[in-house]
Write a structure and sequence with these properties.
heterodimer; A: about 475 residues; alpha/beta; eight-stranded mixed sheet; two-stranded antiparallel sheet; about 35% helix; B: about 550 residues; mainly alpha; three-stranded antiparallel sheet; two-stranded antiparallel ribbon
Chain lengths: ~475, ~550
Amino acid sequence: MNPHTASVGPDSARRGNGEIMSKFNRRRFLAKTLRGTLNGGAIAIGLPLLDVFLNENGTALANGAPIPMRFGTWSWGLGMSESIFVPKKTGPDFDLPEEIAALARIRKHINLYTNFHVFKDDAPNLCHHSGWVVLRSGIAPMTSENRPGETIDVSVARQIGNATRFRSLSATATGDVRDSFSYEGGNSVNAPEWSPLRFYQRLFGEDFQDPNAESFTPDPRVMVRKSALSAVRDDAKKLEKSLGSADRARLDQYFAGLRDLERRFDLQLTKPDPREACIVSEAPEDLPTGLDADLVSKRHRMMTELMLMAVACDQTRVFNVFYASAFSSTIKPGYDKPHHTATHEEAVDSELGYQPNVSWFTRRAMEEWAYYVDALANFREGDGSLLDNAFVYCTTDQSFAKTHSIDGIPMFSAGTAGGRVKTGLHVDGGGSPGCRLGYTAQRLMGLEIESWGDKSNTTSDGIGEILA
Amino acid sequence: MQAQPPDSASVLRTRLLTGEQYTNTIAQIFGEDISGSILPPIPPMARTDGLLASGAAFVGVTSDQISQIQQAATSIAAKVVDEEHRDFLIPCRPETQAEADPACAELFLRETGRLLFRQTLEDVRLAELVDIAGYAAEQTEDFYSGLALALESMLISPEFIFIVDRAEPDPNRPGSERLDAWSLASRLSFFLWNGPPDDALLDAAESGDLHTEAGLSATVERMLSSARLETGMRAFFDDMLGFDGFGSLAKDPVIYPMVTGSTLRDAREQTLRTIVDHLLRQESDYRDLFTTRKTFMSPSLAVVYGIPAGNGWTPHEFEAGSPRIGLLTQVSFLAANSHAVRSSPTLRGQALRERFLCQVVPPPPPNVDFSLLEEAEHAATARERLDVHNTNPACAGCHLITDPIGLALESFDGAGRFRETENGAELDLSGELDGVLYEDVAGLASAMRDHPKLSNCLVNRLYAYGAGGPVSLRRDRDTITWFENRFAANGYRLRPLLRELALGEAFSTVLPDENQGNIDGTDASESTYRFSGPRFGPPRQR
């Protein structure tokens, strides 16, 4: 039976509120299925707003379709050596001290933010924790177990991620599934992709719909899956009655997951827009575990390539890449201290004025940041590149890791967000909240928030210097 | 035998299946070739009061995870009905393959649903699944595709992915509640087998046997003598010992060229084999695990231990007088609690206290300034380096509870190889463990064996593991003490302890309502619930 031609009788049963489900009603089942299919269901969610947004600012694909706006995050561990990291000059054409010399080729695509602060207020300064949690969630954590709220990528994904198969994707270069800066809430982490091969399979396995395929036939199995969700939802509702309040909140989250599943099924039933930049490569080989800098770099580059393919194929519009964890354990082969240990134990060289091995680790991180931005800038899409319609937010966990300082924590951004952000600038925050960048990013992504952050981190002051 | 404490009862919990439980469930119902072909769609839990398993009672499921659970469901269902598997996984054949066959679908879904949901499906639910299968068969013009889609919908149901404790009035103790029989079956099964109830256990639940003394006892005996007990206990000790860290453990190949991925896998396996053999096959005293010289050896491990290699895994006994004595001197403990590039007395001391004694070592103080450590950079030995910590008041508080015991293990490098000296300097292995002085690693092993917290800790972790969430010091103290006394009376043997836990009133009785619904059934201020995993909390310096 072709689902598109099936007719629904005028007497199709609709499920009223509070109706108790008895024996499964075939007619109702069909009716629900067809309603969902024919109306397009959740496909409309989020799209109109986004389109308006982009028609004004975005460049277009060859077929005239607008290029969607994207949001990325990138993270490195353990901050910087201030004396050789912070440029002397602010504004355009800033100088590149030796620790960030690797950024020369991407300087025109990025902004560097220094002298922005993270405030802990009455919360303790939790080593390697407060810094990233504030910059990603706006709130200073009270304990090291505590992640007070959802992270910025999740908030943005709620706004711009509804039209893609994955609301957001995360990948880590550490090979460790436990490394993530993406949280829906305190008890629920978005685990990252940690294996290149697994990531590839998830992206381009059975569920992948090639946007450039010539023909499109909705898979009848997807329609069944969508309809069968109502039975699953009934299971969950029944279960809800036997749960305490904390567990009920967890079940609510599960319901949200089912809604997202329904949204994805709707997408699968719709012909995707063609994406000329979408070219799927061969599956990668997996890498061994380990954190030596060369291996991490190799993994980072493989993950980057996969992530960019995912973006170009419009599988996601929100993408997190994790180069190193907050207490980065990256190792320099033959040197007896991992990165984190070195930040505390290596002496500041009196002639150089910094810790040479620690700086070696930071330089490696900057090389990878340069690689990442370069990869986005060189990925052609329409008349421009993937970077043109993206804004990438890049953070770390400390400013000077040796003393666990979070004052003057450095940040970067990359991309122009569809021409609305100026790049190539060094911005001095003058001691203002680092959350200003996250706030600016969320506004750029269309979130109608008046302010962002808690207590002294609260801000409603966007970084005007970068707005075009 | 002394009576069980009068208020022994446990909290109703809703646990997310762990990745391993998910895999074990699929393996048990559909076979290992199917479970082995998919990665479990559930990430590791946050370690909670010493156990990953306890994190399952609190973790939320993100939308992204639901979609991964759905993807896994699709893969599993497709395999179950493919030509290779259908004839032995589906108990009937459709009359016509291109059409629905409600009778055959019902047979399969009834049996499979009972195993997946760990209870008999209600008729309404079953009928609904049969209808889904029928409708899907019409849509796809294939009976098997239809069946697969109905199976998929079970595999994403909360009844499958959450293990839910449900209560009912206890007819033997008016006014009290007990776990209903299905919940009790699941609790026993995930406790002892780390997998779902089998058909016989579900039968015992359905018939009411499980709520009779004789029925429960017979069931527990059967479970304790099943081969699945070994699977269950390996999972428990793997969790308690923090062996999930092996998933991302690696050593610097320049410094430790003899240590490869397979060496580390074998190190984990060696310890699990030692434990299972000692506790389940030999039925020996738990405490002796810390002084035993018996273990098993693989060729790649033999290189690290510096002994001749046999073929495959072979039993091995270190000579009397060898520095290899007990679990603490096995490569797994030594290498997992070191850096990639060097040993760490702090990490080893912390692991010893947290894993085996259930003590909590506080994280480093906020705002700590590590400048003092620079002076120690060129120290020859860890003892000299750590002197900085132990003489600085801000650091000493915690480092004094970890470092002295870790220093006794400094004759093993970061990969667990024996060494006489470090950077040419003599090693001083003497120290003190909670009032017991020792001169060398054998002294530490013996102090550990006789530590008063050692058996209490195992009981605590096993109880939490079985009851599905962390122990509360206020609520469960008497219960734990009671079981600890029974453990001692039974010669510190594991199987009798498992039996008493499984049969104990605490396990099947449910706390009164007012204690339910909070995060761990206690008031938050008193809670012992905390995350303490290596990645979920900050690591100790060094």
